[in-house]
TrEMBL record:
<keyword id="KW-1003">Cell membrane</keyword>
<dbReference type="InterPro" id="IPR006059">
    <property type="entry name" value="SBP"/>
</dbReference>
<feature type="region of interest" description="Disordered">
    <location>
        <begin position="1"/>
        <end position="28"/>
    </location>
</feature>
<keyword id="KW-0732">Signal</keyword>
<protein>
    <submittedName>
        <fullName>Extracellular solute-binding protein</fullName>
    </submittedName>
</protein>
<dbReference type="Pfam" id="PF01547">
    <property type="entry name" value="SBP_bac_1"/>
</dbReference>
<keyword id="KW-0472">Membrane</keyword>
<dbReference type="InterPro" id="IPR050490">
    <property type="entry name" value="Bact_solute-bd_prot1"/>
</dbReference>
<feature type="region of interest" description="Disordered">
    <location>
        <begin position="57"/>
        <end position="78"/>
    </location>
</feature>
<keyword id="KW-0564">Palmitate</keyword>
<feature type="compositionally biased region" description="Basic and acidic residues">
    <location>
        <begin position="1"/>
        <end position="22"/>
    </location>
</feature>
<keyword id="KW-0449">Lipoprotein</keyword>
Length: 475
């Protein structure tokens, strides 16, 4: 990618920064992350990032999704996994291997179900989802983040699992409803899969910098205006050292935005970037980069966590949380994403890791039972202990997050879980066509090259041209 491409966001897809760099991520938590990787299938990320809300047979006459009827748990909810069986597992992300699978979620699955063998594929040359479909390879389980799960729709792999939910008496009501809703929006009201884990956008801060300048730490549930004033206090020069008050991983913020503002209208399948809410989101963030001394660069915009985690010269950073944390070498803590006056009490939307049973699976019920166990309290507690956000909606679990990780002792880890999740955006197959011009537009405004209205109007036009081109290419 050329310098010009980096500046204007070309080549970006809907994965988050963390999704794009998973293969190369290093840090002081790496040793611990060998266990933390249990169930961790992060995205993106960007994208960060999120097709249709049409009625189906699972909707009532008013168009509201009907919850599958629940029943008591069967005597053996994992009966199909007691006998020897091979399941094909696909991770819709790169930088993976059979070894990493067995160090992470595969280890837990093998310990629980010793008779099950997993044949693992991931995104690589010759093993993209489209490649496997073309070769006639059946897939039993697809794991993907919010940023890549729409591939199952684009490739025609979606299949409703409501029958499996009812047949296996699965209690859907135990799951975080907004995470389930993300899949319903993708599936047109159906359920192609279930969420297993969620991430959010939260506000991380460097305690050493606040201590150095004698400024009080940020708190949970502060307003964005309060954080803006705090950022002005923390932006300063001390001798030859320059410190910045605030930075943002915009791709995460956009995909988990508090307005639930869509990138692509699920009905018209057209980009909706030139909207009042996107203007509000841009203006809210850009003002931080207009604070004297807090101006940004294209490198900081493309890799925002570096300034916080490595350079340690940024006091606060709004970035992804609940699936990864800053290195132990940074004296950090975290609070909830600041609040907006227009959507009172609403925090980050969930960025979910979904497990789906595609329509070419030869072992649908066994595959579903694997996914059901991954949402069980037994497995979810292993994620909670490692500091990850569970998909279980019971708020009691957030007080238990990270209790088995010494490096998280004394930290406000539960701050990454909002009191109220924003509704997730629709994870459209055309999302990539909208995210790239949106991120490029934000960069251009943050760098002072364009005004908000111009940047968003041009981004909207570019996105719709690209969406039209993609539609034409698949006819």
């Amino acid at each position: 990618m050329t310098g010009r491409d980096r500046k204007y966001g070309r080549g970006n897809d809907c994965r988050t920064e963390s999704e794009r760099t998973t293969k190369n991520r290093k840090g002081a938590f790496n040793m611990q992350r060998r266990t933390w990787t249990t169930g961790l299938l992060v995205l993106s990320i960007a994208f960060v990032s999120a097709c249709s809300g049409a009625k189906t047979g699972g909707d009532n006459e008013k168009g509201t999704a009907v919850q599958p009827k629940q029943a008591e748990t069967p005597a053996n909810p994992y009966s199909k996994l007691d006998q020897p069986i091979e399941l094909t597992y696909y991770l819709n992300a790169g930088g993976y291997s059979q070894e990493s699978f067995m160090k992470g979620v595969g280890k837990s699955l093998k310990e629980k179900f010793p008779n099950v063998t997993f044949k693992v594929y991931w995104r690589d040359k010759g093993t993209m989802l489209a490649d496997l479909i073309a070769s006639g390879t059946s897939i039993d389980i697809i794991s993907a983040s919010s940023g890549t799960i729409a591939d199952i729709v684009e490739l025609g792999l979606g299949q409703d699992i409501t029958d499996l939910i009812q047949q296996n008496k699965f209690d859907l009501n135990k799951l975080e409803p907004t995470a389930v809703d993300g899949m319903r929006k993708l599936s047109g009201g159906k359920l192609y899969g279930l969420p297993v884990q969620v991430s959010t956008t939260a506000l991380f801060y460097n305690k050493d910098l606040f201590d150095k300048f004698g400024v009080a730490y940020p708190k949970d549930n502060m307003a964005w205006d309060e954080i803006y004033e705090l950022a002005k206090k923390m932006t300063r020069t001390d001798g030859s050292a320059k410190y910045k008050g605030f930075g943002v991983s915009f791709s995460h913020l956009a995909l988990m935005n508090q307005y639930s503002q869509e990138l692509v209208d699920p009905k018209t399948e057209k980009a909706v970037l030139n909207s009042d809410n996107w203007k509000k989101i841009f203006n809210n963030m850009v003002r931080f980069y207009q604070i004297p001394g807090n101006e940004t660069t294209i490198d900081e915009l493309n890799s925002p966590s570096t300034a916080f985690n490595k350079n340690k010269n940024v006091a606060m950073m709004a970035m992804i949380g609940g699936s990864s944390f800053p290195p132990e070498t940074t004296n950090w803590d975290v609070v909830s994403l600041p609040l907006l006056p227009e959507v009172k009490g609403v925090g980050s939307a969930p960025y979910s890791t979904y497990y789906a049973v595609p329509n070419n699976s030869k072992n649908r019920e066994a595959a579903f039972q694997v996914i059901a166990w991954l949402t069980s309290e037994e497995y979810q507690k292993t994620l909670i202990d490692q500091g990850f956000i569970p998909v279980l909606k019971d708020k009691q679990y957030k007080d238990q997050m990270g209790k088995n990780i010494p490096a998280l002792a004394g930290k406000n880890v539960k701050g990454v879980v909002p009191d109220q999740y924003a509704s997730p955006i629709t994870l459209s197959p055309y999302m990539n066509m909208a995210t790239a011009p949106l991120y490029a537009a934000f960069n251009s405004v943050a760098l002072g090259e364009k005004d908000v209205s111009t940047a968003l109007r041009e981004a909207d036009e570019k996105a719709n041209i690209d969406i039209a081109a993609k539609k034409a290419s698949i006819k």
